[in-house]
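Chapter summary example.
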Amino acid sequence: MRSCITAGLAAAVVVIGLTAEAGAQDQKALMGRGSYLVNGPAGCGNCHTLKNPDLSPRADMELAGGERFDTPIFTAYSRNLTPDKETGIGTWTDQEIIRALREGVTKEGDVLGPPMPVPTYHTMSDDDAKAIVAYLRTLKPVHNEVPESTYKIPLQPIPGAKGLPAPPRSDKVAYGGYLVNSIAHCLECHSTPNERGEPDIEHQAGGGGFPLPVWPVLSAKPGTVILSLNITPDRETGIGGWTDDQIKRAITDGMDKDGKQLFPLMPFAWFKKMTADDLDAVVAYLHTLKPLNHKVEPNFTLQTLPK
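The structure predicted for these 307 residues follows.
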């Protein structure tokens, strides 16, 4: 009888150990996915990490917020995403972080406004939202009090995020659409604005011409904006005449078809960390956009920014 009990206890210990090991492996995989999304296609540090004069991210301020965005309708500051309990998200629950990410409502009930791409993240899958939270928990806490953002436009939350699963990677176009529309927020910047000044993703997706604020570290005149480019397959004004490799080079290295440097508001350094398969999927999806004949002339280069 005693041997049976001992054997049973031993078996239970083995089961518990295997379950704990499996749980640890699952958590490691979740954090790995979150790290890839945050530091790759989502490019969170492009807005949430302060920049050096050469536009490289400051290592001591990783995702600690404080970047300022000036436009005629708002002055916004990116939030501190580190686990600091006083100035970051250290006291937030996982669900509170996911709600802010996908519905634009903070723990305190404040509504997040642009340039936070809540409409894009609204369709992010539950798995990827949880992965991002798991990774943010691993960050070094940075105490950085961020000023309040001010808006001249009404702000509304986007309730009811469904968290539907991402398409299978085997469906290259569908998965590329998920990366573009739910993770990398490409169309929020590259769609032509409507009469309200919002990106018209429904009718002019990828047509370009949307005004985007430049980084303050460039010492440009406050309120200076540049215009996003047309990324539809239109052969005359978009990327319809580009090869796949040229499109990928633009995404990851910031060079256009002719080798000209693109403006670094694009998170090239983050997109460069995307996998080859994900880049292929993004390009495959971009080819499916409706071609829009909309010529956008770059209004500024780094050398011609008004001071």
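To summarize the output: The first strand starts at residue 68 and ends at 71.
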